[in-house]
Structure to design on (226 residues):
C-alpha cells in the first residue's frame, strides 16, 4: 500500500524558533492535508492543498504542495508554547474512492519556553 | 469547538460488555468515518459510510459493528472486545466521499479491561 514518510518524528525547539517538517511519498497525490492533534482531542485541519506548486498560509503556518505531487512541507514561524502537539500530513491519491486518506507517521513538536 | 460531536468522551468496558459509541454532525456532510488511533500513531481507517451506505470496511473484526441511522448520525456498536482494542476512536465526516478534507470529532477514549 501507499506510505507517507514524515520527518522529523519529533522536534524539541526553543520558543520563537521556526519549525519545518515534511512528507514524501513514492506515489502521486491529488490533495495534501496538514492536521494538528492536541492531547485528548481529535486532529484539526490546519491547511489543505489541492494544486501542485500551491503555497498556502494560515497565520504563522505555511504549507506547500510539491511540484512533483510526491511531497509537501509545513513551516511554522516564531513558535509559541501552544504549538506543542502532533502534526500529521495526509494525502489523497489520484485514483481514490471513499476518501481513503493516507497519513504520515506524525511529527511530535515540543516547545521550550 | 469541533462540529463533529462524539459521546461518550471516555468509556471503560469489560470484555463481556456491549456498548455503543455515538457520533453526530450537522454540517450536511454525506460521508462519515470511523478511525481507530493508538498512542503516538496516526489514525487507522475502520469504516466509511457514503450517503448512509457502508462503502468501506477495512477488514475490521465483527466485534465492531457500525450503523448509520441517518445522514447526521453514526454509531459503533462494541461487543466482546479485547484489551488490545483499547484506543482512541475517532469519528470524522466529509462534505462528499471524494476529495474533501476530513473533519474529526474529539474521539472516545476506550479502555477494555
Amino acid at each position: 500500500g501507499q506510505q507517507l514518510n514524515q520527518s522529523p518524528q519529533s522536534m524539541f525547539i526553543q520558543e520563537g524558533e521556526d519549525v519545518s517538517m515534511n512528507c514524501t511519498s513514492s506515489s502521486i497525490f491529488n490533495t495534501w492535508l496538514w492536521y494538528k492533534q492536541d492531547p485528548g482531542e481529535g486532529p484539526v485541519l490546519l491547511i489543505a492543498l489541492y494544486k501542485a506548486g500551491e503555497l498556502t498560509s494560515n497565520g504563522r503556518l505555511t504549507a506547500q504542495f510539491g511540484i512533483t505531487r510526491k511531497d509537501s512541507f509545513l513551516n511554522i514561524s516564531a513558535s509559541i508554547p501552544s504549538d506543542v502537539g502532533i502534526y500529521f500530513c495526509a494525502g489523497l491519491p489520484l485514483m481514490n474512492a471513499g476518501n481513503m486518506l493516507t497519513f504520515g507517521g506524525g511529527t511530535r513538536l515540543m516547545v521550550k519556553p | 469547538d469541533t462540529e463533529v460531536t462524539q459521546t461518550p468522551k471516555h468509556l471503560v468496558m469489560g470484555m463481556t460488555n456491549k456498548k455503543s459509541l455515538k457520533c453526530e454532525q450537522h454540517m450536511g456532510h454525506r460521508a462519515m468515518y470511523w478511525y481507530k488511533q493508538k498512542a503516538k500513531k496516526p489514525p487507522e481507517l475502520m469504516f466509511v459510510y457514503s450517503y448512509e451506505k457502508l462503502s468501506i470496511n477495512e477488514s475490521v473484526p465483527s466485534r465492531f459493528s457500525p450503523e448509520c441511522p441517518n445522514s447526521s448520525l453514526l454509531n459503533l456498536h462494541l461487543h466482546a472486545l479485547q484489551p488490545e482494542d483499547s484506543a482512541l476512536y475517532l469519528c470524522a465526516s466529509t462534505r462528499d466521499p471524494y476529495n474533501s478534507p476530513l473533519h474529526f470529532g474529539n474521539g472516545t477514549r476506550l479502555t477494555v479491561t
Notes: DSSP finds no helices and eleven strands in chain A.
